[in-house]
Amino acid sequence: MPRVTFRPPLFNSASPWATTKADLQELYNSPLTGAVTTRTSLLAPFPHDPSIHQYALFNSPTTSLNTYGYSPYPLSFYLDAVKSIITDTGKPQTKPFIISITGTPEEVVEAVAAVDDLAKAGYSLLVEVNLSCPNIPEKPPPAYSLPELRAYLALLSELNAALPIGLKTPPYTYDAQFQVLLSALREYPLLVSFITSTNTLGSSLHLSSQPSQAVSGGGRVVYQPTLSSPAGTGIGGLGGASIHWLSLGNVSTIRRMLDQVQGLEDVAVIGVGGVGDRAGWQRMLSVGAEGVGVATALGRNGVGVFAKISSED
C-alpha cells in the first residue's frame, strides 16, 4: 500500500469543473495546487443529457446542487489528456494526477489496470474509485453496502496494481455506516491507500425562489424545482458550505477509526466538502486530512480560489 502525501495539501476534487483538458491544464499550471483530480469517468462515455443533468450554484453561503452523473468523456480521454499536459511542458511532472473512475467491479478493475499501466510508464498517478454518486437511478452508492464494497475490493486485490488506490465515500450519518467501510478495509488492509470523504449529499432539493401561479387544491402556492433530473423531481446531490460540517465530521470519524486499527494507520484521508476559505481548509487539516479537495468554491470562483484559501489571514 503506497503512502500518499500532497504538497501543498490543497487541490480540486472530482467535479464538473475538472471535465475538459483545459480545466485540468489550468489546475496543473497553478502553483497552489498539490495535485489535480479528474472528473469521475467510466470506461465508456456517460450518456450526459443537459436537459436532465444540471447544476446550480447558490450564494450565502456558497452551495451547489447537481443532478449530474459522470463525465461525458471516457477514461481514455483523461489518460491522453494527462500525458499531453505533462509531456507538453518538456519538464518533469510537478504534481500527481488523481484519476477518478467508477463502474461495475469488473469495469473498475479494467480501469485501474489502464491507469496503472500509465503510471508504470513513469507518470505520477493515483486512482480514486468513486463509489458514492447519489444521482444514478436504481444504482445506490456502493459504499453504503458491505457486500458491494467487498465485491470491488476483492477484485481489486487480485490486480496487484502498483499505484495508490483510493475510495471516494458518501456522507455517512450514523455509526453503522462507518462500520461498513471499516469492515471492508479490515478485510483488505494493504489495498487502499486513501479515502476521499465526502461526495455530495443525495436526496436534496432546491425550489425556485419565485412561486408559479399554480395553486394546489389546498390553497398552497406551488414552487418549482430549480433543476431537472432523470426522475423529473429535481432532486440531486448537495455540495458546498451547506455540507461542510457533515463532511468535517466524516473526515474526523474516518481518521480516528483508521488510527485505531493496526494496519490501517497509514491510509490517508482527503477531506472534501464546503471548503472555500482558509478557515475551512485548516479545519479539515486539523481533524486529520492529508489533503483537502475543493469543488463548489472552484465552480464559483475559478482557480483563483486556491490563492484565496492559501493567503487569507
Report what the structure shows:
It is a single chain. With 313 residues, this protein is α/β, with parallel strands linked by helices. The protein has one domain: Aldolase class I (TIM Barrel, Alpha-Beta Barrel). 33% of the residues lie in helices and 16% in strands. It is built from nine helices and twelve strands. The chain has helices at 21-29, 75-87, 105-120, 146-159, 175-187, 244-259, 278-286, 296-301, 305-311, and strands at 10-12, 36-37, 55-58, 63-66, 97-101, 125-130, 165-169, 194-197, 201-204, 236-240, 268-272, 291-294. Strands 1-12-11-8-7-6-5-2 form an eight-stranded parallel sheet. A four-stranded antiparallel sheet has the order 3-4-10-9. The protein is globular and about 65 Å long. The protein starts with 9 loop residues before the first strand and ends with a helix.
Name the features:
eight-stranded parallel beta sheet, 33% helix, globular, 313 residues, 9 helices, single chain, alpha/beta, TIM Barrel
